[in-house]
Amino acid sequence: MKTSFKLLACAAAPALCIAAGFPEAAISNGAIEAKFHLPDAKIGYYQGTRFDWSGVIYSLRYQGHEYFGPWFEKYDPKTHDAISGPVEEYRTAGAGLGYEEARPGEGFIRIGVGVVRKPEEAGYRNFNTYEIIDSGKWTVRKGPDWIEFVHELAGVNGYAYEYRKTVRLAKDKPVMTLEHSLRNTGRKTIETAMYNHNFFVMDGQPTGPDSIVKLPFEGRATKDLKDLAEVRGDRLVYLKELEKGQSVFTEIGGFGDTARDYDFRLENRKAGTGVRITGDRPLAKLVYWSIRTTFCPEPYINLSVEPGKETKWTIGYEFYTVPKS
Fold this sequence. Notes:
By secondary structure, this protein is an all-beta fold. The protein is built from no helices and 25 strands. A hairpin with a 2-residue loop joins strand 23 and strand 24.
């Protein structure tokens, strides 16, 4: 893997540092401060193959509140979900790009990770960490209030891309945007779903009745929430505080076919924190998952990029405070 770090508007290395052995960077607009783990196949904090390696935020602070951070008890860089922040995963027909075409021993693509080897197995394993054959080239550039990640992958079996993600903080506002572009540099069309897992921790408060998810539509849960939570109209509410080992998991239906329904609010009344999440693409699916230490709306969108073409999309986060209960 080749990684180059180009820093703008900062003096050499202070803004890009190695802390606890992991490459890191920080940006701020005066209202928000965000800290990132940077992609690196050898010494990066996250070396799994499930999630895109760019935009991994391990801390975001606004008005003295913490919105992201470790939510898991045990850490291993190759664990599929040892990661934090608004991290993203790409799936083609529920697997990696080119998985079905690859024979055992050949490679397929995890967008934002690289080319990984397909072993002898009955089917794709979402939570498996696959052997990385080629992690591509990462370039990271930053200014005081933005950071850009570019991943170039020569690819395999006709699939190749240039993927770009810029995390930008609005001037003097508690607003963060994730600006994406995916350029198809291969000879086959890239068809993929993409979702953001949104691992919110909100001051480390446990998930429970103080945690509220607001929807822009009348929602309905597709799974039994086991008397732990329920969807009431345009809200998902908790009936009790989740204990260790308990989880709430469901798809949520009821959204329409425009980007207007990619608009969610998460609040924790005990912490006094809130965030509004918006996107500029229609929802393809909405999954919701939570355990005691994190609550996560997972909005899916569909992407299709023909050879030589590029597609762009943006996800926005507006942070705010609410009266404490």
